[in-house]
Amino acid sequence: MTATDGASTAHGRGLFIALLVVAVLVAAAVGAYLDWLWWHPTQGIVVTLVAIGAILLAGLLFLFRRSLTTRLAFIGFAIGAGLLLGQWMGPSREELTIVSGTMTLTLGGPVQGVASGPADCSTVASGDELQVTMDPNTRLEVEGMDPQAYPFVSSTFAYGDRWQPEDGSREDGLVVSIYMNAALVPADGAPTELWLDSSPSSTIEQRQTGNNAIVLFSGLAVTSGEVAAILGTDGDVTGTLEWNCGS
User: Fold this and answer.
1) pLDDT beyond 70 at 66
2) Domain check: are 149 and 181 in the same one?
3) Would you call the peptide bond into 118 cis, given omega within 30 degrees of 0 as the criterion?
4) Contact 51, 24 (CB under 8 A)
């Protein structure tokens, strides 16, 4: 091997090492971002599984002991290690504290109705984030409706970065969602589920804040189903949400 060949080989190795360093750094940045974005354990584990898969694939490629597969193995290992490093060293969200509580949904339109039941409250120590979700087995007692037809309902109120929808976030960060499920299957084949979600144009007014509070809402967007199919009449679903979390 001539001096020129040796210098060329050393230069190539240097470039490849630099490539590996870049791969680790980029993968670490991606891992940190996805770990922040997918904060829930059932989502965050996806990054871990991808990282482990990349490392295992790298191990298999090492077995071929060829120049190309060895280089690919190093790259795969760098990506897997970078993803894990990003998850480990990236910024963490505040730890959630989950307590039991109660929530009451009172409808003022297009029908009169009330539903009250147990709820799960997810909070953080700083008070900057909150989510309260009513038990989905709660029945909505609608005035004038046969009790056997009272729909099942679950309502959610939230604020904070963790709970923001991917589209249609409000400037005040408040989120209201209501899900209803018909207790009886309609004979005319109408939708049996109704999803209502807050949007930038919805009206949400907080009368109190924190773990014991009440909000007024109107102008929720129908994201799935039909109001009339569940409540018996069409119109804007308005009302209040009130909750008590732990104290």
Assistant:
1) yes
2) yes
3) no
4) no
Domain boundary among the residues 73, 89, 105 is at: 89
Domain end residue (candidates: 61, 89, 117): 89
Distance CA 239, CA 223 (A): 18
Q: What integer is the mean pLDDT of 50-75?
A: 87
Note down the domain range covering 153. Answer: 97-245
State the pLDDT confidence band at 196, using cuts at 50, 70 and 90: very high
Domain count for the chain, please give it: 2
- 110 shares its domain with 46: no
Contacts of residues 118-122 at CB distance under 8 Å and 24 or more positions apart, as own/partner, are: 119/243, 119/245, 121/211, 121/243, 121/245, 121/246, 122/96, 122/97, 122/98
Going by the DSSP 8-state scheme, the letter that residue 77 receives in this structure is: H
pLDDT of residue 113: 95
Q: Which residues contact 167 (CB under 8 A, 6 or more apart)?
A: none
Tell me the three state secondary structure of residue 143.
coil
The reported pTM is: 0.73
User: How far apart are alpha carbons 89 and 110 in whole angstroms?
Assistant: 51
- Does 239 lie in the same domain as 163? yes
Q: What pLDDT, on the 0 to 100 scale, is given for residue 5? A: 52
